[in-house]
Automatic annotation (TrEMBL):
It catalyses: L-proline + a quinone = (S)-1-pyrroline-5-carboxylate + a quinol + H(+). Pathway: Amino-acid degradation; L-proline degradation into L-glutamate; L-glutamate from L-proline: step 1/2. Its EC number is 1.5.5.2. Keywords: FAD, Flavoprotein, Nucleotide-binding, Oxidoreductase, Proline metabolism. PANTHER family: PROLINE DEHYDROGENASE 1, MITOCHONDRIAL, PROLINE OXIDASE. This is proline dehydrogenase. Its cofactor is FAD. It comes from the Bacteria. Residues 45-301 form the Proline dehydrogenase domain.
Amino acid sequence: MLGPVILAASRSDRMRRLVSAAPVTKPVVDRFIPGETVDQIVPIIRELTDQGLELTMDVVGEDITTPAQAEAARDAYLELIDRLKPLDLGTRAEMSVKLSMFGQALDGGHDMALENVRPVVEAAAEIGTTVTLDAEDHTTLDSMFAIHEELRKDFPQTGCVIQAYLFRTEADARRLADSGSRVRLVKGAYKEPAEVAYQQRHEIDKAYVRILRTLMEGEGYPMIGSHDPRLISIGQELARTAGRKLDEYEFQMLYGIRGEEHLRLAAEGHRMRVYTAYGTDWYGYFMRRLAEKPANLRFFARSMVSKG
């Protein structure tokens, strides 16, 4: 049960300093976060799309404490979109955003986040692509869904993320499937209390399958966010049973995890989108990747031993 411990550490300033200062950290972080700047990430975008993969781009950073920082996050995404424009990738390269980066947790944060994210969604639409709103901890979700609904009035292609481990998600999935939304389903990567979320892996997996069936049978566009081979196979079967064509759903996996599987699925004709993060404020993102999967933590631990 190391996951909750690691998630707690992701909020610790002391752990941030220790991990950031460790000599081994940068090469390990580079496995999951291939660049810190737009200049560094554009060649990665070209490389992955040349391999037949699609991308969703995330500018990392969540600890926003001032409106100026929220505006800077908005501007970072606008810079990314400006650099994507000449690549002419359309929906092969979309954006994922966390509304906490756009000021959601500040005073007046709901309106601030909507005001800051709207120009990003508008700019994405202008180059033929879209934005997906990432899910964060359960206290932020009503605001996220309200912003999603508001944005879809003008930009119906705007997507959102739901998390299988939350009790509320089955009802959210039915509502979103009926409205024809683009929905990424993930297991969930935040430390949530037992009164709102399943705590056992087998319960989360069963909920994931139930929710994915709802999405596949609905009117929307399901995005299967998982590295679990069993859930990937179940997703393929649910899609076939629902009569979906290969371009009517997609798989999504993180950069740096199961890269050969990315290429295998793409070679079979599936839409395979790689969640690719970049930026300097990588700590929270990195720690959640360790918490999600024991193999990631073992990889980091072995690196620290071998480099120590």
